[in-house]
Protein 1
Amino acid sequence: MADKQNRSADPGAAVAVDDPAKVRNVVLVGPSGSGKTTLTEALLAASGTVPRAGSVVEGTTVCDHDPAAVRQQRSVGLSVAPVLHAGHKINLIDTPGYADFVGELRAGLRAADAALFVVCAAEGVDAATIAVWEECASVGMPRAVVVSRLDHHRADPLAEIAACQAAFGAGVLPLYLPVPDGLVGLVTQRRYDYSAGYPPRVSDPDPAVSDEFADARNELIEGIIAESEDETLMDRYLGGEEIAEDVLIADLETAVARGSFHPVIPVCATSGVGLAEVLDGIVRAFPSPLEHTPPGVTSPDGTEHAALSADPAGPLAAEVVRTAVDSYVGRVSLVRVFSGTLRPENPVHVSGHGLTERGHEDHDADERVAHLYSPLGANLREVPFCVAGDLCALTKVGSAETGDTVSSPEDPLLIKPWRMPEPLLPVAVVAKSRSDEDTLSRNLSRLVAGDPTLRLERNAETGQLVLWCMGEAHAEVVLSRLRAGGADVGTEPVRISLRSTFAKPARGHGRHVKQSGGHGQFAVCDIEVEPLPRGSGFEFVDKVVGGAVPHQFIPSVEKGVRAQLERGVQDGYPVVDVRVTLADGKAHSVDSSDAAFQTAGALALREAAAASRITLLEPLDTVEVSLPDEHLGTVLGDLSSRRGRVLGTESGEGGHTVVHAEVPAAELLRYAVDLRSLTSGTATFTRRHARFEPMPEGAVVPT
Ligand SMILES: Nc1nc2c(ncn2[C@@H]2O[C@H](COP(=O)(O)OP(=O)(O)OP(=O)(O)O)[C@@H](O)[C@H]2O)c(=O)[nH]1
Ligand SMILES: [Mg+2]
């Protein structure tokens, strides 16, 4: 079980809309603790969707329903909360701010048409949030900013707005500013008084209200006019003409929807200040799905398909953006419909990308969707259909994995995938008993299918089951889901697969002779073993003269040697990079056999190993770290303390440097965690196995 799902009759209003123009999909983005979940909760309560706002601390919010979220006191997954406001359905998509859950954020960005950046009035703006802002900017996603937690004891909303302007760049301007008990509208020149909570008492327009904020008002109006398509407006404004409020608002809304103007709204979720302005802003200025170009699509065989649009009568194309596994209802797939209309009575076609690195095959299947639901956190409310542009949840669509396309069997489609982050923290899990092992493997594959940021590795050499996670908080969520699924699991240190090799040439004599009673065994061989350069593997040379070892038994010797190389000659580490030459031997006309010569070959190798010196080889990875220049010194110093060798650095985009290095894999086990703390989460890295290298004298063999 992951999320405690709950299909209740109807805790909210009817949530099926038939017109994409009436839908807004808004993803909440921002650092952990900035107040996204609390804001969502306040908006749900303000709109009457829930009777009263729950609290993150008490674990009673709609969005943080997962037991791991309650325990960690922060969101650990994406959550959808639809709010009805002014005849529109706003799908609020709450995402976790903590870096481990960036996969959930990516899914939220995919499902949304606009982003609300939530930053705390007391915290400044962090680099990870700036990076998401820039990413949204690069695809023209409309964005607005909420400066949250106005009641924080260190809140300084004006400083925070200035920090947002410095961090996010042009077009970021406040639409409202805080005053005691509420806000003042810079364009509307009205006062929004929240002293009695939501909804605010709104005053009539009054120029005196904004006197105090004349500079901010002028800057805002100039900012809006600069974005206007009416080029005469600036001249008229500079000529002293008062531009009408409705003209300014219309231009403002167009510029927001275009992604070139980003209003800032100060908000306090606890007192309600700003909630009406956020809801109105979303409905009026954020675009409907009709204005968002859906992702590219092909037929499942890869042939091009006409571009999609948010047309309820178009071909069905929906995408599974998230999968949760629930102990009561099974698999719950959160779906964004990009085109067409999903109806429970119609069969659907599910096709996937076959993310082979996660151990999945390409898949294609026809399925039946018994019920459609509108999710409200963990609550599933049945709906009769879901139109293009809207979000819904499907249950029991067995073959659907995150990233899959749901289309119609008559016109099967495949939506081009979105980019998912690579999990880089290995965690070795062990089942406490035999029966736990079975439960574990059953649950693991389901978990991996639902979470694209989780990778499963069964390492045959070390015998370990390794889960590659995004970080420790992610690992905790995964483990708690496994335990909740009934498997008693623990963790153990991750083992590294080592190799060994011969440090110097040596000879070995293998004699396997047993001739007392019954069928005898007779095989003798002499071998020479020489080290080869790294990466050469294994070579076998036959130099037997005069049939000392009959030719049919030469492959037997090789087989025996190979088997021993794989089993290892010291501590069980496979032997590589050697040439084994069969120089001589003896056979018996009756008692020699394939098996006897295999045994003799293995014995000879063991004897040669005893006469040589065995060097341990450890895996070395090529690592690429991309980081802001200011952290370069720290990261280089850290790499060298990990026995890393820097191969070079190059300047990347936007003040970033890419460091190329080779680092022993044993030193990278916790690099995902350490690099994040060294660079405040601003660096990323990739790693790839390069080769094996001798371990330095005195290095501790990782267990
Ligand atoms: N007093 C006060 N506290 C708030 C407000 N907004 C959020 N908080 C508190 O701040 C903490 C973090 O809020 P969350 O809503 O969990 O923040 P988040 O952005 O969802 O954090 P992540 O889920 O980790 O990304 C919680 O303890 C909230 O109760 C606010 O407006 N006023
Ligand atoms: Mg949250």
Protein 2
Amino acid sequence: MSSETTGPKSQVASLTADDYARLETLDAEALVRFGLERFGQRIAIASSFGLEDVVLIDLAARTGIPFRVFTLDTGRLNQETYDLIDRVRNRYGVDIEILFPDPTEVEPMVRAHGPNLFYDSIELRKRCCHVRKVAPLQRVLSTLNAWMTGLRRDQNTTRTLVPKVEVEELTGRLKLSPLADWTWDAVRAWVRENRVPYSVLHDRGYPSVGCGPCTRAVSEGEDLRAGRWWWENPETKECGLHVR
Ligand code: SF4
């Protein structure tokens, strides 16, 4: 049976414990290649167009294998992110699957709590992330047997244990994080040396790219995730896309 017709549990179940141990030792390029060869059109790169995400796209393009990329347009992105999407499309000749939140969820939320509800409480911030990010993500993941992310262990205290390969318990879907053991300097060096298109926001002190109202530049020496939801404690700084 082809990978097009099998669900995540059956396709991923054939991986043995030895396979997982071996995959965890692969470098990023080899792990991206494994994902594309194994899952074809049933795997996609999740991209918010931060520096890690453009590295992943660059690595995928190097394999010569057709690949999918999706992004979540929350409706609150920076113009610079849309500009980068165009540059990536042109450079790699890849369609970017742009997913939007359900207006029947966004409209009553904004009507009840205002357009800047995320500043009012952690609960409202998480609700906004759920409506604008998590729900559209779940929609696209339901079409996939595996996905790739640009998560790295040194991004935040919430990410220090990120494995390169994990199986989501509920769905059986495989999640690959090929850059898990990369440093921020290694990511920047890859982009520089390979002339990978990147967001101009990084040149203005933004280590990560997210929604405009919830992301700011950081100062020298500040934590890399300090610019995300900077009014919250580090322990709460996840949007629900990467629940482990
Ligand atoms: S990052 Fe901010 S604007 Fe974007 S979905 Fe989350 S709370 Fe809403």
